[in-house]
Backbone:
């Protein structure tokens, strides 16, 4: 059972590795759903002895990308490859929410040789079976999804249907809001071999009032919690 932990800073990366993560999803700005991290962060993570998949998303918001944004994403894929990471995380939508298969085909071709994950752009599609078939045709290794719900636990029925459609041709990786206390129910309901979580906890910002007043930081921030990563990994090992 593979545990993938998403992180957006160096402290989180180190905490996830110490806690026993099997793979890292590397992002920036997780509070906005995650966007492409810096080249420096990619290179730092690429030097670690753990598989790393880099989020390729030029901005927060929707997943409908203009031509210039697609070109940016291709340059970011190049940066990820040069950093020595193992994979990239991709997604793109049409205006109606369906997968933009033309753009995804272009991005996947550009990422040839890297492991590819279809991210939660899939959670806004109007037809989940169609999206699974598209992801298989495009050659993705896995789909990161909550089943179209706010959390993977809430979307577990849809996740089960996606797993049935996938029929072993692609991995369905549940993600969104997964905490250790949910693992037993998720594993009882779903046949999976990997799972995605942030394992974050609220932490004091530790900064002075002036930084907060100027808008550089808030009173609290999310931080990857090593103990939660370890707890989740242990539960997966005993129950998976």
Residues:
């Amino acid at each position: 059972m593979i545990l993938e932990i998403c992180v957006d800073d160096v402290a989180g990366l180190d905490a996830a590795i110490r806690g026993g993560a099997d793979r890292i999803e590397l992002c920036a700005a997780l509070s906005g759903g995650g966007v492409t991290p810096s080249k420096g962060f990619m290179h730092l993570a690429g030097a670690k002895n753990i598989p790393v998949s880099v989020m390729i998303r030029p901005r927060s918001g929707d997943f409908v990308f203009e031509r210039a944004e697609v070109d940016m994403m291709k340059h970011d894929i190049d940066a990820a490859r040069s950093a020595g990471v193992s994979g990239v995380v991709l997604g793109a939508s049409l205006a109606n929410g369906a997968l933009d298969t033309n753009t995804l085909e272009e991005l996947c071709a550009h990422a040839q040789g890297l492991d590819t994950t279809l991210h939660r752009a899939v959670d806004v599609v109007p037809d989940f079976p169609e999206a699974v078939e598209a992801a298989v045709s495009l050659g993705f290794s896995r789909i990161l999804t909550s089943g179209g719900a706010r959390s993977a636990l809430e979307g577990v029925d849809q996740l089960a249907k996606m797993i049935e459609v996938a029929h072993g041709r692609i991995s369905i990786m549940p993600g969104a809001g997964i905490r250790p206390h949910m693992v037993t129910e998720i594993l009882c309901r779903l046949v999976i071999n990997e799972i995605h979580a942030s394992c974050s906890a609220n932490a004091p910002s530790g900064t002075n009032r002036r930084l907060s007043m100027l808008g550089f930081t808030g009173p609290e921030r999310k931080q990857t919690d090593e103990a939660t990563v370890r707890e989740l990994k242990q539960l997966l090992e005993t129950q998976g």
